[in-house]
Design goal:
About 45% of the residues lie in helices and about 15% in strands. It starts with a strand and ends with a strand. The strands form four sheets. A seven-stranded mixed beta sheet has the order 1-2-3-4-5-6-7. A seven-stranded mixed beta sheet has the order 8-9-14-11-10-13-12, with helices on both faces. By secondary structure, the protein is of the alpha/beta class. It is globular and about 95 Å long. The longest helix has 20 residues, at about 720-740.
Amino acid sequence: MSYAALWCKSNFSFLEGASHPSELVEQAATLGLHAIALTDRDGVYGAVQALLAAESTGARLIIGSEISLDDGSTIILLCRTRKGYSNLCRLISAGRMRSPKGESKVSWEEVCSHSEGLLALWGGDRSLLLRKADPDVVARQLKEAFHDHLHVIISRHRRADDVAKEALLRLRARKYDLPTLAVPEVLYHEVSRRPLQDVMTCIRHGVTLSSAGRRLKPNAEYDLKSPARMKRLYRDDLESLERTCAVADSCTFTMREIAYRYPSGQLPNGMTGEEWLRKITYEGAAQRYPDGIPDEVTLQVEKELGLITELKYTGYFVTMWEIVRYCRREGILCQGRGSAANSAVCFCLGITAIDPVRMGLLFERFISRERAEPPDIDLDIMHERREEVIQHVYDEYGRSRAAMVANVVRYRAKRAIREVGKVLGMAESACDRLAKLTSSYGDLTDPALRDAGLDPDQPLHRHLLTISNEIIGMPRHLSIHPGGFLLGAEEILDIVPVENATMEKRTVIQWDKDDVEALGLFKLDLLGLGALTQLDICFRLLASHRGVNLSMATIPADDRATFDMIARGDTVGVFQIESRAQQAMLPRLRPRNYYDLVIEIAIIRPGPITGGMVHPYLRRRNGEEAVIYPHPCLEPVLQRTLGIPLFQEQVMKLAMVAADYSPGEADQLRRDMAAWKKKGGLERHHDRLVNRMREKGIDNAFAERVFEQIKGFGEYGFPESHSASFALISYASAWLRCHYPAEFLCSILNAQPMGFYSPATLVQDAIRHGVSVRPVDVSWSSWDCTLEPLPDGEFAVRMGLRHVNGLGKKDAETIQNARINGPFSDIDDFVRRTSLDEGVLRSLAQAGGFESLERHRRQAVWRVKGASRTDTLPLAVAEPDPEPVFELLSEADKTAWDYRASGHSTRAHPLLALRPLLSAQGILSASEIRALQDRSLVRYAGLVICRQRPGNANGVTFMTLEDETGHANLIIWKDIYQRHRILAKTTSFLGVTGEIQSRSGITHLIARRLWVPRVTARPEVVKSRDFH
């Protein structure tokens, strides 16, 4: 005898269930269950993941939810039909939309009014059936609404009160003439997850394990049981157990029944979507090609329009055109990127800025007939104004037909350690120390415990390690996708529940982007890009201060000075080419034109690196190796990259040309490349590719090497179209930095947060390049950084109040408004006219913001403290106490105070004052290191501003250290890192003994030993930006 498990909660009943939906479904298949119902609390968050598991295992899946009522009780609803699923989504949405985030409440009247197509299971610990008073009114409502689809569930968990509760349930089932079902609550797929479920319960309730009491389940009887165990458990009522199969059979709905239509967009009267798209495409083409549309462009456009119509994607393209048109009209900088840049239609519509016909890009990388998935257009929007575009979409399509896609926030190691440790009653300091020594990615390990002073063999610490590793990857709560929208021709509530997002005026569906893609739904991506915000700010600064009107389209192309700067690797703050790896590659590749930049952006990616493509390309570019094409047919494909495949599109074209793949098959190859590390599937291409290349006379060694390179792309190879789109922004960014460094700095500081470097690093780099940067001052500073004229016609950058810790935008507006009535005469005048609170005043004083009114910073701190309390004194004092005289801050102290109060300093770098002491110890500066010959042995010390451990670097760690003369790039081999891992992970001011590696104008310091520098006063801690 089998049975159906009808009340199963996964880890998408956030912090309640302790198994992934896939684990529950796979276990049900393994145990041979008749069916399994996923009934997460007030949601269908895990439904798509359960569906995919069911399709791969053959398990029978039922979709449902445990619904929370406004009287504190619950009821379980299962979907019998498509209409039932729609009603369930609408009911959940109603409860979520009116409740605080993370909660849901509906009334019994709402449950009954949404009953069509649903089946109700009434019972469980929180059910009205277990309360003292008979629920006569509710029972009558439910029977009238659900008719024969209302059941009482008997849950047995071998608890002391099971017998009494079951007796009451059976009594009321008889009273209301309701059939019973054998349905225990399932919270995990196997018993071993019970300890994790206990901990998750404690996290949900904010209690420790020792104080949780009855909040915890009393035993481990909440696992998914085998048919044999269930038969023993319900041996006295096998009829209720058998009845679960009949109930499951009545639930015929499957998630694949969800029919979806994308909205057609606003169409002129009498025109179809296809006619309208054709019209606006050719109107755009006429603007793109004012001298006449080339024949090859017309052929490509016609090919694309035919396929777009055939696959019913017309509305998607019209929507994107409408959004881009709105951005242009409102002066919002935007640019399409990704595979959409392969489309001539997107180029003509103004969605993308790359001409794919001229660049020879492959449309099938974007859309193919064989690929059963919607196109994906990423629209980058200046992040400062993206919310305007998001609200425009809501206004245009209505909130019932538009909602943002979810992002599921999952546990990573650091959060897991802190929250699990707290539940286990460990000291907060110990958990914090351990978290700081643990990578955000990967698991908690025994060495990490030891590094934190914890004994892995001690039971409490072992329990921390076990539970933390189990909870990593589990959903914690729902957040919102950076910019993904789901739009529907019908109301989205019929497809998926919608709830309020944390951000005001936003709504979010209960599925993430992978779920949306798995069901073939169209996701619209409106992504915020700080670089576009920076460019917009910079263009506006140039127009207002110099009368220079520029845009991305009018910046002079192929500027020699810009490419000279790029070739030196002098690119701090430049979009996409500012990282340590990019700066190390630039002097070797030495870009001289736009396409070189396209290659530069793509080549520093895991795919080309692990595929062994980087060094052969560089050798050929530098004339150290002949450019050879193994077969003449490959020359057109590989010519621009000197015979080396660097882009995804090249791999696809290579398969088409050398192995006779159709465009759609080539795209499937690309998809298999992207997925093979996780799912396999790439090996089936091996024989076809290699054998067909060999048949065409291509050398077998080359064919095998190409296949290995294809596998390398599984580590993340860049599409040429994506790189080409980014290169436009990158060049514009570099040109502005080269020719207008003050405006560049001002704009990038005002566009924060963005990019690779902190404001402190950006400021110091600009100062080293001759930019005059002035400190925050209440007499001159606005919220944003501003430009102030210099005698020579150039401009200085005045730091904005936004960079003072603890000061908000409203505080800055108060200061600016008070300044309209005239300059401040002194601190008392400032305090009186602004009425800012003491905390804000103290922050300004500590940051040196009153320097124009009081040169001595300690004196300023004292005065704001006194002035802020003057108005509260009950009586005037005839003779005020004499003001104390404070010791003046040294220049080093001023710098330290700057960093502490605002995270940067315009006066000096923290290490400048320490340089005499460091030099006396034989510790060189970054500029001195760069002048040394290869293999020189050196001692160096600097502030750690970046740590990076790429997954493809075989355990090698890269660090960037900074001093007053610039940056030093550090390479730490795996064994050295393990020996000094605590210092490497935690120390802000780090000393290094090592060997210089100087090649092609690139200097690295190969670490042999790490140490803590001996100084009289340690520099202020600088937060590093760490990447995995």
